[in-house]
Amino acid sequence: MKIGTKSLLIGAHQVVLHPWYVAKAWRKLYGFPRDPRLWVAFVVHDWGYWGKSDMDGPEGETHVELGARIMARLFGPAWGDFCRYHSRFRAQADGKPFSRLCLADKLSVALMPRRVYLTLARASGEIREYMARCSAEEKYAVQGMDASSEEAWFADLCEFLVAWVQAAIGQEGGSHGE
């Protein structure tokens, strides 16, 4: 089974738990998500990981497209972009602002209890990829996370994501749904 599929079934993007933490983050940032389209986005935004052989490599970075297609078909192109640009890297590559979903998605990691996140990320094996991408030649090197242990890495990740979300709040993209 490929790592993207494992992430959705038993990992950090688990299809039941992850959307709830994204909703919790949305509530913290913007208030209770009353628009039902938001709830659909919380559920489908990462479905594109299904069948992917990596999480943050060239294949994994395309994961945003499935959720974007679903949202565009159901609710129109703006909602497709809302889902597509939950990825900072995709937004940057396309020269677009990231969506509010990006902020909630990133904050959701920091809201998940350490033991729960690490158990899921270990079960899927994705934690190995995430930690390896912290090395000097990888895309997360600038974040300066301690990859000496999973616990140290996760603590640094949460600290980084909370700081990033706080800094980004004033720079939110125009594609935000509500």
String of helices and strands: HHHHHHHHHH
Tally the structural domains: 1
- Number-wise, the strands total 0
**Class per helix and strand makeup:** mainly alpha
What coarse outline follows from CA principal-axis ratios?
globular
Q: What low-confidence regions span 5 or more consecutive residues with pLDDT below 50?
A: 173-178
Separation of the first and last Cα atoms: 37 Å
Helix count equals 10
Largest sheet, in brief, is: none
Estimate what percentage of residues fall within beta strands: under 5%
- Rg, rounded, reads 15 Å
Helix content: 55-70%
Mean pLDDT figure: 91
What is the fold's blueprint, element by element?
Layout: H1 3-10, H2 17-30, H3 36-44, H4 64-75, H5 77-84, H6 88-94, H7 100-111, H8 114-124, H9 126-132, H10 150-168
Helix pairs in contact: 1-8, 2-3, 2-7, 3-4, 4-5, 7-10
How would you characterize this protein structure?
- The chain is mainly α and 178 residues long.
- The chain has one domain.
- It is 60% helix and 0% strand.
- The chain has helices at 3-10, 17-30, 36-44, 64-75, 77-84, 88-94, 100-111, 114-124, 126-132, 150-168.
- α2 packs across α3 (36-44), α3 (36-44) packs antiparallel against α4 and α4 packs antiparallel against α5.
- The longest helix is centred in the C-terminal third of the chain and has 19 residues, at 150-168.
- The N and C termini lie far apart (37 Å).
